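Hi R.,

Here's the chain you asked about this morning:
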Amino acid sequence: MTDLFGRTRAEHFYDGIHLAGSFLATAADKLRAASSLGRRALADTALTSVVTVGSECRLRNIATGLPYHVSSIYGFQPQPFLAEPSGSLSFHDEAPAIEFDLHSAYWIEGIVVHNSVAGPDRARSLAVSLSNDRVDYQPVFAPDQAAWPVFGAWQDALTIEIDATAPQRFVKLHLREKTYFHLDCVQVYVRSFLSDTDSRGDTRR
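And the predicted structure, written out as tokens:
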């Protein structure tokens, strides 16, 4: 049985397991810290936390604020991605590759890449790959040169729809030509029942 999003009950059940697993791990970490420091109060936050689950399954951006790794740094330290694009840049790289860890495996449904509006053609050779172990990456976006996109930010961002066959944890973006790589914002969307008050990032219907 599927719902209006085309997701089966089993896939929604996976989302619930992932949610429970995340919070149980947090509680366990707090308890270990409380035991080692002799202060049970450190565990209170995890033990008394309430997770609000909404009635709707929405697309949720889980990349907001995530740290990431770039293959080289030019001029300044990379900044975490904001919830909304700014049209500027968050990093600038001459050996172009960026990789970030979602901290858990998700059924990724889409990635939206917001480019710097200054020199947007520099990202035209963009390719995107996903991995669950940071070793074996599978390409999900790598068009031929004739179809290389030139994209910007906001409504001109590049939207990549993904037909996921397995949960993935790591996202890598790289260029396939020697040029500068400077992006503004990357948004990674998954389905979730988390309410807006317990979300990280924005939601889409």
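Strands lie at 53-61, 68-70, 97-106, 108-115, 126-131, 138-141, 158-161, 168-175, 183-194, 203-204.

Let me know if you need anything else.
M.
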